[in-house]
Amino acid sequence: MSQASRKKVSILVPAYNEQEVLIPLYERLGKLAKDTPNYSFEFLFINDGSRDKTYEIIQRMAGKDSRVAYINLSRNFGKEIAMMAGLDNADGDATVIIDADLQDPPELIPEMLSYWEDGYDDVFAKRSSRTGETWLKKITSKTFYQLLQRSTRIPIQRDTGDFRLLDKRCVLALRQFRESQRYTKGMFSWIGYKKKEILYERDPRAAGETKWNYLKLTDLAIEGIVSFTTAPLRLSSAIGGIVSLVAFIYIFFLVIRALFFSVDIAGYTSTLAVILFLGGVQLLSLGIIGEYIARIFNETKNRPLYFIEEYHASGTHQKKS
Ligand code: UDP
Ligand code: MG
Predict the structure, then answer these.
(1) Which of 63, 150, 244, 246 is 20 to 30 A distant from 307 in Cα terms?
(2) What is the C-alpha to C-alpha distance for residues 159 and 188, in angstroms, rounded to an integer?
């Protein structure tokens, strides 16, 4: 097949402090490209403001290999935004998003490509096991997915990460999502198109440390729910409705009792309990409303999502390896 007629596949790698894994990843990607000669590959690294040698390593790779492209962001923006910077600049006929830490095996990509050739637009990898994760993380993530799924009609993909192949038209669709607080996993579902799931064993991190902790994960979970659905607002209305109804019935009961049975109007404890309960419910509802207002505030600022410090396109190399 001639050079020009080969389809181009962009491999998008967000990387934040990944100096230990970049070379092994690059080697595995190189092997993949060699074993899959029917496609031309671009390896697009997004350096998300790393403070270690990530940038230097990527730069050196790009100097030797014309397939390597990179974007150096002006600071650390987080994975969601880093991915967006990549999607904005990936110009392949298909784009594969893959973690730098080799938790997502690049060897799965040929299978993704074959489904893509069969006409699927979004081939995503679903974890068949979660080795290397604590039971607490497994349980919290399961609960979260269930909660999210109950609150929306759009099917949520469980146990999938961002490891997936996207057809050009999915990439073009995602580029139109310019919100600054992003929950990309929700967006993949939202855009629709023909989806195909493939199963894989997620490996433990090859080296380095996960950038997640429980605080950040909770944050992402709230982000996921609030950015995806307004169900919590409904919930607080529902709770308000139920509480009001119960209160009305109780008042009716008290009045009848006082009028016809002249029982003492007693109860310091019950009064206090009711006041505290209502106070709690009100604060909770305010908090929920606050979450949405905060998002409105952030989105109305309409800031750019990221700034690029340096962009190096593929196909512009000094020396061929
Ligand atoms: N990442 C990033 N910016 C960040 C945090 C993470 O680009 O601020 C990248 C990271 O380099 C890796 C991917 O996102 O390629 C997934 O990160 P990590 O392995 O820490 O997450 P986990 O696999 O534990 O969910
Ligand atoms: Mg990881």
Answers:
(1) 63
(2) 14
| Cα 124 to Cα 200: distance, rounded to the nearest angstrom | 10
Question: Which ligand number lies closest to the CA of residue 99?
Answer: 1
Asked if 124 and 195 count as a contact pair (C-beta separation under 8 A), the reply is yes
Confidence class for position 182, pLDDT limits 50, 70, 90: confident
In this prediction, residues 282-306 reach a mean pLDDT of 87
The DSSP H or E segment spanning 54 is: helix 54-64
The token duo for 279 is: 């106070």
Write the residue with the smallest CA distance to atom 6 of ligand 1. Answer: 79
Cα–Cα distance for residue pair 262/20, rounded to 1 Å: 79
Angle between helices 268-300 and 214-228 (to 10 degrees): 80
Instruction: Name the residue among 303, 110, 70 with its Cα closest to residue 198.
Output: 110
Centre of ligand 2 to C-alpha 253, Å, is 58
Q: Which two tokens stand for residue 132?
A: 């290397």
Going from the C-alpha of 211 to that of each of 66, 130, 226, 288, the distances in angstroms are: 30, 17, 22, 27
Distance 48 CA to ligand 1 centre (A): 10
Tokens 């307004």 belong to which residue?
Answer: 230
Each residue's pLDDT tens digit, 67-125: 999 999 999 998 999 999 999 999 899 999 999 988 888 989 999 999 999 999 999 98
pLDDT for residue 3: 57
Question: Strand 160-167 to strand 94-97: parallel, antiparallel, or no bridges (unpaired)?
Answer: antiparallel
C-beta separation of 299 from 179 below 8 A: yes
16 within 8 A of 58, measured Cβ to Cβ: no
